[in-house]
Amino acid sequence: DVWTIAVADQVDSTNTQLLSRANSDGLHGLVLAAELQSAGRGRLGRRWQARLGDCLMFSLLWRFDRGLAELAGLSLAVGLALARVLRQLGAPVELKWPNDVLLDGRKMAGILIELSGDALGPAAVVIGIGINLHEPQGVDQAVAALQSCGVAVSRNRLLALLLNELHVVLTTFEAQGFAPFADEWMAMSAHQDQPVRLSFSHGGPIEGVARGVAENGALLVDTAGGRKIFHVGEVSLRSM
Ligand code: BTN
């Protein structure tokens, strides 16, 4: 069995905890789930907040035996693993580049991938996942939950299903990268061939039509100035 699973009542952030373990004795396949996080973190420095029982929150440590030149593709592959499981459960989710899981255009799950150590040597990666099971209080219009599409699943069962699928996907990714997932990813994309607006931390927005993803996970957009390629980290995407 690849997974070693620990469950905590409360931690600052399961990603923070596993990152420190990644730098020391943390085992490949170590999983930490938490009932509550006091300092849950999202992408781009955002916070991730959830009440007790509303959200499945966990992180896992995966030690690749080589350097990870293409982390971008990894985050898309992890999103795909989530979408496969959620669709099997009956939730018609879609993917938003790079790795949000949407239900009716609202965010149902988020993924935060962090790399420990030297990107050139064997890479240890912490993959943090938060999936909303119940609507948050004071309903945020941008947030969706599994409950809202009638799927009732316990957090334990959902975690088990996800870990099985993640094992398959991570093993394939380790051997072949993102390429074998690209077509399936695009078929689940919420924005395929749709007009989108891209915002950047530096510089003005760009508008165009989303044309899917390259074999390394980069986003392809047709703009007035021709086809452009965007990499994770430099840009965020909105429907128009
Ligand atoms: C995002 O969409 O911005 C990513 C959200 C990731 C949240 C999960 S919850 C478990 C793990 N621990 C964290 O602090 N963050 C991730």
Automatic annotation (TrEMBL):
Its biological purpose: Acts both as a biotin--[acetyl-CoA-carboxylase] ligase and a repressor.
EC number in record: 6.3.4.15
Residues reported in the UniProt entry to bind biotin: 13-15, 37, 41-43, 107
Biological-process GO terms, alphabetical: regulation of DNA-templated transcription
Range covered out of full length: 81 to 320 of 321
Gene: birA
Keyword DNA-binding: yes
GO molecular function: ATP binding; biotin--[biotin carboxyl-carrier protein] ligase activity; DNA binding
Keyword RNA-binding appears in the UniProt entry: no
GO cellular component, one term: cytoplasm
Stated name of the protein: Bifunctional ligase/repressor BirA
Record field: catalytic activity: biotin + L-lysyl-[protein] + ATP = N(6)-biotinyl-L-lysyl-[protein] + AMP + diphosphate + H(+)
Enzyme class: ligase
UniProt similarity note: Belongs to the biotin--protein ligase family.
UniProtKB keywords: ATP-binding, Biotin, DNA-binding, Ligase, Nucleotide-binding, Repressor, Transcription, Transcription regulation
Superkingdom of the source species: Bacteria
Span of domain BPL/LPL catalytic: 1-174
